[in-house]
Design brief:
This protein is an alpha/beta fold and 452 residues long. The chain has 2 domains: 254 residues, Rossmann fold (3-Layer(aba) Sandwich); 166 residues, 3-Layer(aba) Sandwich (Rossmann fold), CATH 3.40.50. The chain contains 19 helices and 15 strands. The strands form 4 sheets. Strands 1-4-5-15-10-11-14 form a 7-stranded mixed beta sheet, sandwiched between helices. The longest helix is centred in the last third of the chain and has 17 residues. The protein is globular, with a radius of gyration of 20 Å. The mean pLDDT is 93.
Length: 452
Amino acid sequence: MSDITKYLLPEEMLPKAWYNLAADLPVPLAPPLHPGTGQPIGPDDLAPIFPMAVILQEVSTERWIDIPEPVREVYRLWRPSPLVRARRLEKALDTPARIYFKYEGVSPAGSHKPNTAVPQAFYNKHEGVKRLSTETGAGQWGSSLAFAGSLFGLEVEVFMVKISYEQKPYRRALMETYGAKCIPSPSPLTASGRAILERDPESNGSLGIAISEAVEIAAGRDDTKYALGSVLNHVCLHQTVIGEEAIRQMEMAGDSPDVVIACTGGGSNFAGLAFPYLREKLKGAALRVVAVEPASCPSLTRGTYAYDFGDTGHLTPLVRMHTLGSTFMPPGSHAGGLRYHGMAPIVSHVKELGLIEARAYHQTECFAAAVTFARNEGIVPAPESSHAVKAAVDEALVAKAEGKPRTILFNLSGHGHFDMQAYTDYFAGKLTDLAYDEGELARALHGLPTVG
């Protein structure tokens, strides 16, 4: 093993294609269904809200999809992102494990989200779209789409989950700096938002509600399309630039992971790192892939695998996924980007096939791990990313207890520079482990749509 800390790919090694895991699945994905007919949907059903290029990627089973050169040109602003050996953390943990992290916080928005925001903005602009509507939780996706929209001359309207809107004002400021309009959700601007506010005027909001509002806006205007930052196949596809780079960088390090880890809310950053490695696993590579989610919103570890709506207002197609129920309202944890009732269908599918593991953590133990990481590696993780840090630390401590080395690779999906209030609350002892309401979960699951 070399003593190098950072493994940097030259720009000419930036991947030229995204990897589509759907091409290699041993069992194909269940199709999305029309909520009215219960029949599989076609491209025409999605045309009111997505550009055709994105729709074709959503249903594609081609293994490789070329990255357009205008997208690669923008990627070069920060990509390839670094792979870092966490040597100081290894020493602090006194572990024989080798810990690597792929650092996506170097992007202009501070997270992995521009990997899909840029191509989505490009495809919409290419097809003559003028405006984009979207939702955001912690604000990483909203600021990323605002950034991408500014580069391609698109107006961007972001419905931000209200609890995050209030907790993270600097994310709002970043979106506005890039030229986007940021609206707390639920809002009085849409029928779905007004319906929620009528039932609960103090609603903290959720990603499911914000999606309903953004989809409603897109469906109601000919010049507007909807852009999604997670969950769907095309989003997971765009993120695989992360894993494709990581594979080459691990080769540079003369190492290969025994375990690959990423946090999961809707599934995008997890898919980005994990899917290229799942391709290698399907070829026979001996490695484990671990998805880590919040215990307050545990779709993979507690949800039901079933067809459900992707939004609270029931405006989206039905997709088969691990779900807590589209009406489930998670507690207002600081990991706002992970507060989604469902998991990406393709991530849920590989979980059902036994190709990945899932675990859930409470937020205080994640923040404790994040502080340990920051005090050794210097980077303050986003609250979402702290879940992956916690899992990596746990794996390293198991290696220590067993006295056996192992190679750990995790995705540090973003920095926490806009999330310092969460750290302030943690150090003040104000951060608590929030439990979801079991009765509310049971009611939400009871309301799952009947299919077939």
